[in-house]
From TrEMBL:
Domain Leucine-binding protein: 25-368
Keywords, ordered alphabetically: Amino-acid transport, Signal, Transport
UniProt similarity note: Belongs to the leucine-binding protein family.
GO annotation, biological process: amino acid transport
Record-given protein name: ABC transporter substrate-binding protein
Signal sequence annotation: 1-23
InterPro entries xrefs: BCAA_transport, Leu-bd, Peripla_BP_I
Domain of life: Bacteria
Length: 385
């Protein structure tokens, strides 16, 4: 015969069980697996997979990723963000590929009061009520472009032409170039733009060459970023050619081929991990990222985009550990709030692209340690002094 004491004890255990367990930590991830930005979005997804392999649980709680494809469409980016928050009840958002898409997603995150880690560069966004809510892992364009301008000045170049995308990323690159060049007494004498979907940039290249610049900077990324390099080579351009971190891509190298040789790009340290000093803490994390990437995806990384989403994961894990240590439970509004606060109190978190120190006044969180210059040589990236 079962005693009343045993029945009461069993009942207490049943009641206590669900209260003791925590929900999985839910990450809502949006990327462009299809569409014109998929050459960035697919690597972004592979970087998140590497992150999950690198750290799959936090404080004993499993981390679960819910991934949605925005098809490179900004409207879908915002819609997916809302779906992940309102229907899936995710604790944090990470995404997406492309500046316009990321800006749309960030705007939705701010409206819903959910912390977000942007893995594509975006211009400043309003803090929002109770914010700020959004940090980003890509280096700020002014910091990257400053490396180009410093190189131009050191080599006595006085004029530069710009050929880039006719969208938010192109604007960001051009504005960064204009500001840094003005301070260095270098004149930007052409501003030519093209759409990511264009199949030819002949007119833009001819106008840029007609201005007779000392150097040309390319403001495109991924596969469509190769068009000006090819067109310039076809017209015999032999002058200095500068790119950007969006050209650290196997798709760009494949399409540009030999025409990419000589292009100097500012980028994060991960692409030249083996060439970094042994005492550089970024080298260790970068090599660990490559190991995790290979384990998760069955191949070695050949781009820089995946490392930005991997760094997003590293930043998220660090913040989540501190949020949970403060007693916040995943799945609750309190956890979202604690995550937001933890994100903007990030200190010296080492990633593959830099060392992150986010504050409410600094959503980028990186310094000169996050920038190197590399020159493309036969499909490889040579670290410049």
């Amino acid at each position: 015969m079962i005693s009343m004491k045993s029945l009461l004890g069993s009942a207490l255990l049943i009641l206590a069980g669900p209260q003791a367990a925590q929900a999985d930590i839910l990450v809502g991830f949006v990327t462009g697996l299809s569409g014109p930005v998929s050459s960035i979005g697919i690597p972004n997804a592979k970087g998140i997979a590497a992150g999950e392999t690198y750290v799959g649980e936090i404080g004993g709680e499993k981390v679960r990723v819910i991934q949605l494809d925005d098809a490179s469409d900004a409207t879908a980016s915002a819609r997916n963000a809302r779906k992940l928050v309102e229907q899936e009840k995710v604790d944090i958002l990470i995404g997406t590929s492309g500046a316009p898409q990321t800006l749309a997603m960030a705007t939705a995150a701010i409206e819903m009061k959910v912390p977000m880690i942007a893995v594509s560069p975006i211009a400043s966004v309003p803090a929002g009520e109770g914010g700020p809510w959004v940090v980003q892992t890509p280096q700020p364009m002014p910091l990257l472009v400053q490396g180009i301008v410093d190189h131009m000045k050191a080599h006595g170049l006085k004029t530069v032409a710009f050929i880039g995308f006719s969208d938010a990323l192109g604007d960001l690159l051009y504005d960064s170039l204009s500001q840094s060049a003005k301070a260095a007494d270098i004149k930007v004498i052409a501003n030519e733009r093209y759409a990511r979907s264009d199949s030819s940039v002949t007119a833009q290249v001819l106008r840029a060459l007609a201005a007779r610049p000392d150097a040309i900077m390319l403001g495109g990324t991924g596969t469509p970023g190769a068009l000006p390099a090819i067109a310039l080579s076809e017209r015999g351009y032999k002058g200095p050619l500068y790119g950007n971190n969006g050209m650290i891509s196997a798709d760009f190298l494949r399409l540009a081929g030999k025409t990419a040789n000589g292009i100097i790009c500012p980028t994060g340290p991960v692409i030249a991990a083996e060439q970094l000093a042994a005492n550089n803490p970024i080298q260790k994390v970068s090599l660990a990222y490559r190991t995790a990437y290979e384990k998760a995806n069955g191949e070695m990384p050949t781009d820089s985009f995946s490392s930005y989403s991997f760094d997003g994961w590293v930043v998220f894990v660090d913040a989540a550990k501190r949020a949970m240590a403060a007693g916040a439970k995943p799945g609750s509004p309190e956890f979202r709030s604690a995550l937001r606060q933890a994100l903007f109190a990030t200190k010296e978190v080492v990633g593959t692209q830099g060392v992150y120190n986010f504050t409410p006044a600094d959503r980028h969180g990186v310094d000169d340690r996050s920038r190197v210059l590399v020159q493309i040589e036969d499909g490889k990236y040579k670290l410049l002094p």
